[in-house]
Design brief:
heterodimer, A: alpha+beta, 5-stranded antiparallel β-sheet, 5 strands, B: 461 residues, mainly alpha, globular
């Protein structure tokens, strides 16, 4: 995009109807070569937007890699704690706070389809040490219920389980 | 310039001339191998990257292994790297061809990428993806479901989601998130999909894949025509579009109707590139944009730029005539909901995807995601960009480039960004003199690819 100069040349044929507009407002068929100021402004803005998008992308990539790193540790922790090498384990990243890095992992206590058996849910947080994190408590959820809600829980244990089961 | 420097440069040119064809062949082979790897592994069976589908690529089974994130992302990275190399070579080859045109002496890289070579590579990539399974998206099953709702079940796809035909054979393949969503596509596209219904789900799936392939071929032919008419190297232009990994793997691999929209878009541009302006051609171009918008509404953004650039009655009349005809057909077939594009756009504008730049920027500033105020800010930003582009077009800036920028701005400011959305500006970017558009489009695509890579950094078990 070239900058348009203040001085206008003649309007193209058939476009005399625009003559009553001030020169700077008249349409042009071809851009005039200007000082390049507009090009410079636009390019600078484009570069700034590009830097912002690139920074946001890299930040998100690192963030997602961090989440994956944590989730792998959480899954390993759940399997080690329960002694079950199950694959269908649900992870809730929001129950204990969306950006708290505290997760609740639920899985069956015996072999079967997901949620067809009593589930054990573990509240896990803290740093990853030797590929695992710390279990701070948990609860059981009855079989055949869709959601891990307080009325469906029993046997709460540990500090994280306090107040999460019905009285 | 001294004789020594000249002879040194000459020797470097001769060396690179010798290497360029070999390098181009190597990069092409990498592109083909990566596409084949994805397709063959995708055909092997259940994969998180291959949507549940009727068996259409069973004859390829047993050659590859189940497609996992790691293999897919490595193949995508290889494709992207090879494509970047080819783009550079194609750019140098086009300079070489220009020097042939000017001086009738072969430029240093003119032989690296010939017309036949480029066409063979693009055809190979597209055919590899065509014969394989549907990749990465369940959208094509939604297209078929909407068609079956209308033809088999007498339901209006603009009023109901595919959940309304829960017992239908296609319903099991529709993406979970889209089961309750009525179609957002234009009535022309919905009517185009109706004749595929009697073929059954598998037949319709092949029909959709064929439509996408033909639309892609048509788009590339028009890119060629427009590039030549506008004084660009057509070989480089079709290579940049047709060998693009997102275009091939995501766009064609998912049989997305964006390719049909892009065909209409390029038909419109093609009608306006004639050396002598003609009212009939300009009206036809505007009608082609409207036809594209009746497939997918986004392309309508070209109209104001075309009209402002031409400043003649013909494109306005073409728009109105096509719009009246489209509205009449849409209303007759689907009632008022079939032509209520604004409602569909508003609904889709509220969606949020993890790949959108809006979400990434929200995370950068410590927010969990996009809030309603962010939607308003993004819309305001988009309006400002469009107003600036319209002003520049009024003052003589190329309307094709302005349209490309507008499409790029729509995808970047959208909270619902998918790979095939960042393909929209590409065919326009290769036929415009403002090379910033091509650079920006390819940069946005590169960022999209980079954002997919987190499973490579820490593989999820």
């Amino acid at each position: 995009m070239n900058d348009s100069p203040a001085i206008e040349t003649a309007l193209p044929a058939g476009e005399e109807r625009w003559r009553r507009l001030p020169p700077w407002l008249r349409p042009r068929t071809v851009e005039l070569r200007g000082s390049g100021q507009m090009w410079l402004i636009e390019t600078t803005l484009l570069v700034l937007v590009g830097v912002l998008l690139a920074t946001a992308t890299v930040n998100d990539l690192v963030r997602e890699a961090g989440i994956n790193h944590r989730l792998i540790a959480d899954l390993k922790t759940w399997r080690q704690y329960t002694g079950h090498d199950y694959h269908n384990i649900s992870v809730d990243q929001e129950m204990l706070g969306a950006s708290s890095q505290r997760e609740v992992l639920c899985g069956n206590t015996s072999p079967g389809a997901p949620k067809s058996r009593t589930q054990i849910c573990l509240a896990i947080w803290g740093p990853v040490v030797n590929g695992m994190r710390t279990v701070h408590g948990g609860w059981y959820v009855r079989a055949h219920v869709e959601n891990d809600l307080p009325p469906n829980r029993y046997g709460c244990f540990g500090p994280a389980g306090q107040g999460r089961c019905p009285e | 310039m001294s004789v020594a420097i000249q002879s040194e440069r000459g020797a470097a040119h001769v060396r690179s001339e010798r290497w360029a064809p070999a390098l181009a062949t190597l990069l092409a082979l990498l592109l083909v191998a990566a596409a084949a790897e994805i397709v063959l592994d995708g055909a092997a069976g259940i994969s998180p990257l291959i949507p549940k589908s009727p068996e259409i690529a069973g004859w390829l089974e047993g050659i590859g292994e189940r497609l996992g994130y790691r293999v897919f992302l490595i193949a995508l990275l290889v494709s992207t790297g090879a494509y970047a190399g080819l783009v550079v070579l194609a750019g140098r080859a086009s300079i070489g061809r220009a020097s042939v045109d000017r001086a009738s002496v072969a430029g240093p890289h003119a032989g690296a990428i010939s017309k036949r070579w480029a066409i063979v590579l693009i055809a190979a990539l597209q055919l590899i993806v065509f014969v394989g399974p549907i990749l990465l998206s369940t959208d094509v099953f939604s297209y078929i479901a909407y068609a079956r709702m209308g033809v088999e079940h007498g339901l209006n796809p603009y009023l109901h989601g595919p959940v309304a035909i829960a017992g239908d054979p296609v319903s099991t393949y529709v993406g979970h998130d889209w089961e309750r969503v009525a179609t957002a596509y234009g009535p022309l596209y919905t009517l185009l999909s109706y004749p595929l219904v009697p073929l059954g789900v598998v037949g319709a799936l092949w029909g959709m894949k064929l439509e996408a392939l033909l639309a892609s071929a048509g788009t590339l032919a028009l890119v060629w025509r427009c590039a030549r008419a506008r004084g660009f190297d057509p070989v480089a232009a079709i290579l940049v579009v047709g060998a693009n990994p997102l275009y091939v793997i995501y766009g064609l691999g998912g049989a997305h109707n964006d390719l049909i929209m892009m065909l209409a878009m390029m038909a419109a541009v093609s009608l306006t590139v004639a050396s002598t302006p003609s009212g009939r051609r300009e009206a036809g171009a505007a009608a082609a944009v409207v036809a594209g918008a009746l497939v997918k509404a986004t392309v309508a953004v070209l109209l104001p730029f075309m009209i402002v650039s031409r400043r003649r009655l013909a494109p306005i009349l073409g728009t109105l005539a096509a719009l009246a005809l489209g509205a009449l057909i849409g209303y007759a077939a689907f009632g008022i909901h079939g032509i209520d594009v604004v409602a569909a756009l508003n609904r889709d504008a509220a969606f949020v995807s993890t790949d959108s730049f809006a979400t990434e920027i929200a995370h950068l500033f410590g927010k969990p995601g996009v809030f309603p105020i962010d939607h308003d800010l993004l819309k305001a930003g988009l309006v400002l960009i469009l107003a600036h582009l319209l002003w520049r077009t009024w003052r003589g800036y190329d309307w094709v480039a302005a349209s490309g920028w507008a499409l790029l701005a729509i995808s970047v400011t959208s909270t619902w960004l998918l790979a095939w959305y960042i393909l929209w500006p590409l065919p326009l970017a290769v036929i415009t003199r403002d090379r910033r558009l091509l650079a920006a489009t390819l940069a946005v695509q590169a960022l999209f690819v980079a954002h997919q890579l987190s499973p490579l950094l820490v593989p999820v078990q």
